[in-house]
Amino acid sequence: MPTITPDAVALIVISGAAKGTNALVPGKTGGTLRVGKAPTNDLVLPDSTVSRHHFSVERTADGIRVVDAGSTNGLRVGGAAIKEAIVTPGTLLEAGDVQLLVGVEARDAVLPPSPNDTFGLARGTSQGMRRIFTVLERIAKTPASILLVGETGTGKDILARSIHAKSTREGGPFEVVDCGAIAGTLIESELFGHERGAFTGAVSARTGAFERAAGGTLFLDELGELPLELQPKLLRVLEAREFRRVGGSKTIAANVRIVAATTRDLAREVEQGRFREDLFFRLAVVTLDIPPLRSRREEIPLLVEGLLEAAGATPDRRPDAATLSALMAYDWPGNVRELRNVIERTLHLSPIGFELANFPPRPNADNGSLFPASTFDASVSYRENRARVEEQFERSYIGWLLERHEGNVSAAAREARMDRNHLTDLATKYNLQRRRRGG
């Protein structure tokens, strides 16, 4: 595994025969990456429109500089022909007919951990989280799109808000679109807005998230749930930096920075045809894997303290050493979100001190039985008793599942490996629809 510089700048090929390959820019000032058709280049592009030695990427004191090497078909940055230019992550380069993206290849990189155990609202003392902070401290102020990948509840929302707060757009709006919580027929309107009469029910014009986030950050949560048929429209907006409302003819500038989050492996989704490769490249300029809480247990005391402070807990409402040990021993399938729920529930239910109730979660027990005797009714048949227990299980399980995911039906269905529509039907049957917490 190579040792890679803190910014881990890479050139990612997004079109042509070498699509999907990438090469890192050497870390020291003066380090150079050479690109062209000849096999002696650091990044080889086997394309007839690419010169043998087409251009180079140099690391300078001013930043990353690209320099045309006297190529036949020229070098373009953002569509404009250049001889040399300073670029940042997210910049699109064109060498002949081949497109390349300046990105950050932080995966599998050995990055020095940040000396800080916080990044904006996010906290983390583990090596993994502090390496993430290392990347974000350098990337937050650039226009680069960032993709946060991790299990539900790992803190992707908090990191997205922290990126916005540390960016040059901090004075602008922070807009959230949950791609998994909006019906597929409505998500286009949610993103781009619509004009009055654009479709049945559009009784008035509506601004979309791209307009509402103008000058700020648009956070696309649960990106992996974005319908395949809508993905080309989002790609066009990211490429052209403009869009139209549904049913409209006026072109509107898309002045937003994109941060996206997903629980899915989008690279695998691309391989299986469920996510567009070109959109993936556009959004994954910087990809960061957020580790689950069970792999960074040493952070739990710090996180608990932060959650208690946020809840306004008094100094006497703090866990003792034994309680902290119990919290650190648990696997936390719901990650930081589950930890927060446990802390808040304890503060509400424990009148004094900090005494955990029913922790870790476990099934009810009655003489070793999964169900207490009060579950059953001797006056009815076995079949009726079984139906009653199954209904109780169904209601309890669906309620627990939705609570874990704060009402996000897509994330809940994915974890339970059940059909999303079936889960929606069960939630409706038992009146368990839940609104997600704000933000």
Please characterize this protein's 3D structure.
The protein has 439 residues and is an alpha/beta fold. It folds into four domains: 9-104, Tumour Suppressor Smad4 (Sandwich), CATH 2.60.200.20; 118-199 and 206-289, Rossmann fold; 294-349, Helicase, Ruva Protein, domain 3 (Orthogonal Bundle); 368-438, no CATH class. The protein has 13 helices and 20 strands. A six-stranded antiparallel β-sheet has the order 2-1-11-10-7-8, with no helix packed on it. Strands 4-3-5-6-9 form a five-stranded mixed β-sheet, with no helix packed on it. The chain is globular and about 90 Å long. Residues 363-368 and 435-439 have low confidence and may be disordered.
Low-confidence stretches: 363-368, 435-439
Largest sheet: 6 strands, antiparallel
Assign an overall shape.
globular
**Mean residue pLDDT:** 86
- CATH structural fold name of the largest domain: Rossmann fold
Q: Give the radius of gyration.
A: 25 Å
Query: Can you identify the CATH superfamily of the largest domain?
Result: P-loop containing nucleotide triphosphate hydrolases
Helix fraction bin: 25-40%
Give the tally of structural domains.
Answer: 4
Q: Which architecture of the largest domain per CATH?
A: 3-Layer(aba) Sandwich
How much of the sequence lies in strands comes to 15-25%
Number of E-type strands: 20
Query: Which CATH class of the largest domain applies here?
Result: Alpha Beta
Indicate the structural class. Answer: alpha/beta
Number of DSSP helical runs: 13
Spatial strand order of the main sheet: 2-1-11-10-7-8
